[in-house]
Each structure stands twice: as structure tokens, then as C-alpha cells.
Amino acid sequence: MPLLWLFILVVALGLIGFILGRTRALKDANGDIRLLHSLPNYYGSNVLLAVLIPGLAAMLLWLILQPMVIQGQVSSMIPDTAYTDKGSLNLVMSDVRRVAEGLDIAVEQGTLTREQARDIRTELTDIRARLGAVGVALGSNVESYVLKAAQKYRTMNAVGNWMMTVAVLGAALAGFAVSMLRTNKDMRARNSVERVIQGLLIGAASIAILTTLGIVLSLIFNTIEFFKLYPALDFFFGTTWSPSFGGGSELGILPLFWGTFYVSIIALLVAVPIGLFAAIYLSEYAGPKVRAIAKPLLEVLAGIPTIVYGLFALLTVGPMLMTVFGADGGLGWMQGGRSVMTAGLVMGVMLIPFVSSLSDDIINAVPQAMRDGSLGLGATKSETVRQVVLPAALPGIVGAILLAASRAIGETMIVVLGAGAAAKLNLNPFEAMTTVTTRIVSQLTGDADFASAEALVAFALGMTLFVITLVLNIFALVIVRKYREQYD
Amino acid sequence: MNDMRIVRKDVDMNDTKISAKKVQVFYGETHAIKDVDVEIKDKTVTAFIGPSGCGKSTFLRCLNRMNDTIDICRVEGNILLDGEDIYDKRVDPVQLRAKVGMVFQRPNPFPKSIYDNIAYGPRIHGLAKNKADLDEIVEKALRRGAIWDEVKDRLDAPGTGLSGGQQQRLCIARAVATEPEVLLMDEPCSALDPIATLQVEELIDELRENFSVVIVTHSMQQAARVSQKTAFFHLGNLVEYGDTEQIFTNPHDERTESYITGRIG
């Protein structure tokens, strides 16, 4: 039975179970809802879940296990002489699957009967030609053991699918029967339904956590691979970055790290004062009407894709800076439109809504009683803001700034377009430099050999960035948490 | 009212400190205070009593223009402080609030040290010439706030770390430190236990020597204990205003009598 039909059948069974379970519970209570332990719908849902969970779990398990079992069985039929290592065994197995698929199609189109498909021999028939006629092209002539394996594969698959149908329906029906039998007016249907809902929520949460764990692990393993090929000391303390896929690369992180650091500092120098002042205006001075319009407008900035900011840096800010600081402007500090300053300024604009929005929330969280107390002593508004509101909100604001800093460190598109690609250790902010993130992109784009130090270095760079932003985030969270204990 | 123990002290009631005439307050469309006339005497404790929502706190906040911070609030009528209209355009509410200090319902120490909490007002208004001067002002204020002995060894500790009663006395000391002429207190004991309440009440009685004190309270015993003059508010109107003793023993208005005997409110 096709998978979709099986699925629909299980769901239909569940829905029938819902109605029957609800009815049965109501009948047991003689139609009086107050005699039931839970609301009638819970009894229905309980049966529904008792059908769906075992049915779908059996289906999922089978879909995972069947190919593994069949693969194991079939690959034992391939003679040892046919392959040298695991890689070539996989190649043979993919041939087997392809032949099996071809036989399926041939049977479907009627060029072969079921019996023929089961019994044909390479000695008697040109399988390659027969399968080519139905649209399945094979790279070479089919060896007899491949055909035998393919035939075995087909029969096992057919048996497996049949068994799956039985198992899934059996599990669903068993769940149906058990839950129906247990349905009576005293059954705690609500409790069991809510346990399932809780399980669902836990599942969703653990998927997010496990994904993070997976990302970290993949980074760690690749980083370890990299350090086997390239000494860690040279990576962390090397001052030259010149990867060449031909070998003899120097992969020192310091120039990249300096670029990241420099761009982020300039971005924060732009974003922190502007964002903070905007937040103070919005939360302390602006009337409700101005606030209602200005705050969403400011937050639109946060919704602009960073690639658009990158274009803005490349096409507008870079040339503008050139006219002032470039050779044309007479200062001659700037060689081209791409520079640390260009990227830093634009990234600063991008970070303004982060700083302002978070700071605004934090300033608003300072109790009105603090302001009243200060105003009641004859302090002016600005004295109140400077001496009472801001100190009270300071830890939270620091947290907001650190979050913005980790955004700045991880930002890629703006620096790709705005900062250039030259890895340099230089103090001139009008010089083109590059950052860790842009180098990760360039090391992994194109046909990189994933076993080389030049490609694997991307993971070490990513790991370093990850650790830095993680530390910054933890630091920010600790500060924000501490801030809650400040007043009250 | 058997436990009433009215403090009899010589009340120097010759000069009027604050004089309010025909005061109206609106919150948007709501008419919160209607035609209130009241004369608050110098060096006197005046109590505002009345049921919740009767407008006594609103009226109190008019006296130092704290209602200015509420956008929808509008005040009409005259309020004179030493004969000067405080709602006049030439009056800066900031200077006014330095003269008319305020203590709030819930203690609201700043998240700073005890010392900085007290020094806040004097620093803003430039009352101290040097550090020694400021130290002296802080000590004096804390002594007047009856909290010096409890905190003198930990002036650098955060003010928020004190107990509720200590915090409220700290807030009173903070208000006193700026040397106001009038001290407004909005239910200063509502968040305190009986012992802290007693300490604050004793403090209020001492403050009377230097300031005119206006206190809003829900407790009639408290009004009777600490005040010399009492005003009874009901539904935004000032129903009756007179000597505390007269209000509590021989009220002229029957609404006042109903309230103090617990029949309305």
C-alpha cells in the first residue's frame, strides 16, 4: 500500500476514534457532562492520540530501519572481489538500487511481467538494453551478482512494505482498542492528553537545543581536523593571512581578527551614542504620538536585509568618503571606496535599532517612582535622566550594547561589500581590510577540497568567532540578569 | 475611636503657607477635584483624609506641580505659596519642587548608596560648598530622618538594601536634606509595619518644628495622632476642614461624621 494511503488511513482511524471515544464517554455518564472527569473532547482526543502515536511511530521507525536492514542483507550478496573498500561497495550498491528501480519501472510499463522481472538472467537477456528502453540508463553492463542483488532487493522491499502496512495498522488498531476499552467516565483523559502536549513542547525545545549542539559538534570536529594539518600556534598568533590552494599557505588569524575588531569598534562608536540618545528621547521626552510613529520607523531599520546595507556602503557611503578623504579631496588617506570606515559606518547604522530598541525597553522598565522621587526633589528632567534613570538602567544598556557587539562581529554582507578583501594589520581606518566572516565565505566558495587546511581553516575561524560571540552573549545575559535585582 | 490619642502641642497658626482657591483638576474628561479651597498653615501638620479615589492624593500632587508629569492632567484655579501663584507661567516647577518636597506612598530610594541618596538633592541645588559641608548636610538629614544610628556605619551600602521602614525614613531624610519649606507626604506609612509607622509618625511630629507638613492618610488614627488640622475629602470635594480635634470629636458635616465612624468610605 502506498505510504500516503497508509497515512490517510491512520489519520482517518484516529478521527473515527475521536468521535467514538467522545460518544462512549458521554454514554457512560448518561449524557451528563458533570459526571465526567474531563470534558468530552478530551476523551475523543485521547483515543485520537492513542491511534496516531503508535501508528505513526511504527511507520517512522519502519521507514528508518527497513532500508538499513535491506542494505545489510543485500550487500552481503556482493562478492568480496567486486569491491576494494567501503566507497566502491557504495557505488555497487547504488547500481543495485538503480537496477531494482529500473525493473520496477519496466514492470509498471508492462515491458516485463512480474515473473520475468523476478527470473531474468544476465546470461539470457541484455538487461542494460531492456532497461534503457524504459528510460533507465545504466553506465555499464549489468553483472550477474548485481542483477541478483537487485532482484533480492526488490522482493525484500515488497515484503517489507507489506509488513509495514500490517505493523502500522496493527499498532494503530491496538491503540484504538486499548484506549476505547479504557474510556469510561472516571478515566483521567485530560491528564493524559496534556502529558502528550507537554511531550510535544519538550520535543520542540529539544530540537532547537540539539541543533545548536550539532552545529557546535560539527565545528569542533572540523576544527580538530584543521589543527591536525596546521599548527594551532601559527593559526592563533600568525600575522600573515595568505591562503593558496597550491600549498604553502600562511593562515594567521590576527589580521582577520584585527579587521573584525576594527570594523566592530567603529560600528559601535556610531551605533551606541545615536541609539542610546534616540532611546532616551523616545522613552523620556517624546509624547505618545511621536513615540507611536517614531519607534516603529526606527525599527524598520532592523528589517532591512544586510545585503542592502552592503550595497548602500558600496555605492553611496564609499564614494562619499572618497570625495572627502580620497585623493580627490586632497587628503589622500583613502585608496578606494572599500575601507574599514565605510563598512563600520554602515554597520553602525544597521545596529542603531538594536541599541535603541533594547535600551528603550530597559529605560521604560525603570519604575516611574524613581523619576517621581527625583523630580519631587526639584531635579530637572535631564538631571533625572542622567543621574537616576540612566544609572538604574546602565547594566541593561550594557547588555544591549554587548548584544549589538556580537551582531557586529558576526556580520558578513556589509563587510564583504564595504570593507574589501585584503588581510592587513593596519591602523588607518581608510584602508581596506577584511574580517573573519568574509574569509570564511571566500575559503568555502568555489570547488574547495574539504580535506585541505585552506578549506578547513574556515571551521577554525567559525569556531573562534562562535566562542567570542558566545562569551559576549553570556556576559550580556549575566549583566542583564543582575540588573533585575537593582531596584525594588 | 477609643485609642485616639491626640497630640496637644502649641500650634503656631498665625501664617498661612499655602492657600488654594477654587482648584479644579481634570484627568482628560474626568473632573477629579471640584472647587477646593484650603489654607495650609506654616509649621503645622495638616492631614488629608477621605475614602479611596476621593482626590486627596491628586490635590496633594497639585501643591508641587507633580501632576505636570501626567500628560492628560489639567489644573485650574489658584494655588498660592507665600502669596505667589505656583501655576504662574514665570514659576519654574523645578524650583518650586525644591521648596515643596515630597515623600511617596512606596519608599523609592535610588539605586545608589545611602550617602548618595541623601546627597542627591543638595548636589543638584548646590547646597554644599565642599565635601565636608556635604557630609554635614547628609548627617544632619539622616539624624532628622531618625535613621542615622542605623546607617552611620554603612553609608556606602545601597539604599535599596535597607528594610521597608528604613527605606521610607531614608526617603524622608532625602526630602528633608534639600531644606524644603513644605513637605508633602502621600500615605507615607501604607507600606510599613506598625513599628516603622510609629517611628515615621514621631519623625513627622519633630519635622513640624521646621516645616509645614501635609500628609495624606487612610488611617484616621494616624491623622488624629499626628495632625493639628484635618481636611476631609469626598468624591472630589473638600467637605470639611478644621482643627483635627474638632473634626474628630464634633464634625459639622454629616458626611464627615459618617466617614470617621466608619459608615461611608
Description:
The complex is a heterodimer of chains A (488) and B (265). With 488 residues, chain A is mainly α. Chain A folds into two domains: 3-187, no CATH class; 234-483, MetI-like fold (Orthogonal Bundle). Chain A has helices at residues 3-28, 40-75, 86-109, 114-119, 127-133, 144-182, 189-229, 232-237, 254-285, 288-303, 306-325, 340-365, 368-376, 381-410, 413-418, 436-444, 453-483, and strands at residues 241-242, 250-251. A two-stranded antiparallel sheet of chain A has the order 1-2. In chain A, strand 1 and strand 2 form a beta hairpin. In chain A, helix 12 packs across helix 14 (381-410). The relative contact order of chain A is 0.09. The mean pLDDT of chain A is 86. Chain B is α/β, with parallel strands linked by helices and 265 residues long. Chain B has one domain (16-260): 3-Layer(aba) Sandwich (Rossmann fold). The longest helix of chain B is centred in the middle third of the chain and has 14 residues, at 131-144. The model of chain B has no long low-confidence stretch (mean pLDDT 87). In chain B, the strands form two sheets. Chain B has a six-stranded mixed β-sheet, with helices on both faces. A four-stranded antiparallel β-sheet of chain B has the order 2-1-4-5, with helices on one face. Chain B is globular, with a radius of gyration of 18 Å.
